[in-house]
């Protein structure tokens, strides 16, 4: 449990990877540049968000494949891939391929449920099978089985002169199954992830099921996960709040950051919508102020690793300032030490 006397073990960051629809290449290259910067600064992990039919990364596995060839050490994660858009067998092949290319650095995070705006996209996504698609936890279980090397077909052996067939996903990447994460916002998701031996991603959004105090809900989810996990207290959990340090920011940057946080604050005061989603307040201030807020946060008190989320829609120089302050000021304020170059 982090306290001022117990150091944070792993520091990561999460980016949405936004881009201009008229010039998408620049935004994708900027995301790769940010990941490279993260490695130079000593971050332990870099995570990308997943956005379909938006001006953000729609194919994080392709982006991370490129990132794997521009970095040597930093772990690469997805937070998260919504499996409602994916075929678990094909996704298992892609994940294993990128894990092999990265030297075993991939940390895939996934979630389930129908795709957002389901009625608008189901005709394009599943024109023949929309009513039959299973968006339950079983979709995750299939992915776990395929990544873990369980049979995906009934035939193996040689066919013809040169073709060799396998009955499991190829390439098989030993260890990848242990680096699969579930992004959960409810007690049931936390429990399921624990029972199935996954790692647990908890972010700045939770369901207000029994309380309206965000940090208490998050602490409850983490404890539920670990109580259900075979590794109990040793099971991995990563927290992902939106954090904006201002130590080296200019006056203009601080003003923009403050306006961003102010515009988002009303949604943090009460549960939103039928799902009763509760959003965590963005943490804005000096590294000393943010560290003080984190040490008082019931969710943070349960974890030893974080993947701080970068805010949306800022400029490249803003992200460079935020990441630099995280690595050189906030991380050390939490007792973290940067990783050595690969």
Describe this structure in words.
There is one protein chain. With 342 residues, the protein is an alpha/beta fold. It has a single domain, classed as TIM Barrel (Alpha-Beta Barrel), CATH 3.20.20. 37% of the residues lie in helices and 17% in strands. The protein has ten helices and 14 strands. Helix 2 (60-70) packs parallel to helix 3, helix 3 crosses helix 5 and helix 6 runs parallel beside helix 7. The radius of gyration is 20 Å and the shape is globular. The relative contact order is 0.16. The mean pLDDT is 96.
- The CATH C-level class name: Alpha Beta
- Mean pLDDT comes to 96
Runs in which pLDDT lies below 50 for 5 or more consecutive residues are none
Tell me about the biggest sheet? 8 strands, parallel
Key traits:
eight-stranded parallel β-sheet, alpha/beta, two-stranded antiparallel sheet, TIM Barrel, single chain, 17% strand, 342 residues
Topology (elements, then pairings):
Layout: E1 10-15, H1 24-41, E2 45-48, H2 60-70, E3 75-82, H3 88-102, E4 106-111, H4 118-125, H5 138-148, E5 157-159, E6 163-165, E7 181-183, H6 187-195, E8 199-203, E9 205-207, H7 214-228, E10 237-240, E11 243-245, H8 251-264, E12 277-279, E13 283-285, H9 287-295, E14 305-309, H10 316-333
Parallel strand pairs: 1-2, 1-14, 2-3, 3-4, 4-7, 7-8, 8-10, 11-13
Antiparallel strand pairs: 5-6, 9-12
Helix pairs in contact: 1-2, 1-10, 2-3, 3-5, 6-7, 9-10
Question: Gist?
Answer:
By secondary structure, the chain is of the alpha/beta class. 37% of the residues lie in helices and 17% in strands. The strands form four sheets. It has an eight-stranded parallel sheet with strand order 10-8-7-4-3-2-1-14.
């Amino acid at each position: 449990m982090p306290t001022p006397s117990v150091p944070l073990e792993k520091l990561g960051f999460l980016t949405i990877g936004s881009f201009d629809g008229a010039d998408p290449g620049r935004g994708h290259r900027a995301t790769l540049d940010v990941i490279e910067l993260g490695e130079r600064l000593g971050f332990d992990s870099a995570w990308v968000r997943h956005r379909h039919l938006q001006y953000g990364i729609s194919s994080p596995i392709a982006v991370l494949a490129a990132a794997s060839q521009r970095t040597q050490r930093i772990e690469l994660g997805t937070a998260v891939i919504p499996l409602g858009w994916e075929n678990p067998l094909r996704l298992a092949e892609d994940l294993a391929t990128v894990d092999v290319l990265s030297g075993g650095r991939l940390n895939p995070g996934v979630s389930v449920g129908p795709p957002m705006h389901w009625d608008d996209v189901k005709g394009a996504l599943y024109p023949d099978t929309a009513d039959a698609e299973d968006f339950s936890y079983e979709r995750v279980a299939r992915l776990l089985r395929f990544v873990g090397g369980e049979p995906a077909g009934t035939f193996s052996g040689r066919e013809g002169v040169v073709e060799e067939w396998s009955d499991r996903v190829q390439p098989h990447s030993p260890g990848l199954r242990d680096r699969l994460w579930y992004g959960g916002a409810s007690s049931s998701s936390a429990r399921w992830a624990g029972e199935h031996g996954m790692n647990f991603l908890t972010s700045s959004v939770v369901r207000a099921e029994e309380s309206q105090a965000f940090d208490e809900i998050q602490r409850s989810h983490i404890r539920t996960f670990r109580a259900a996990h075979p590794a109990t207290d040793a099971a991995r959990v990563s927290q992902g709040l939106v954090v904006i340090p201002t130590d080296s920011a200019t006056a203009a940057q601080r003003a923009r950051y403050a306006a961003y946080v102010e515009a988002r604050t009303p949604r943090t005061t009460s549960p939103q919508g039928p799902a009763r989603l509760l959003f965590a307040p963005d943490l804005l201030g000096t590294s000393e102020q943010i560290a003080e807020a984190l040490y008082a946060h019931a969710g943070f008190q349960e974890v030893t690793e974080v993947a701080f989320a970068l805010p949306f829609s800022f400029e490249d120089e803003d992200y460079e300032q935020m990441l630099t302050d995280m690595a050189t000021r906030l991380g050390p304020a939490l007792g973290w030490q940067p990783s050595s170059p690969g």
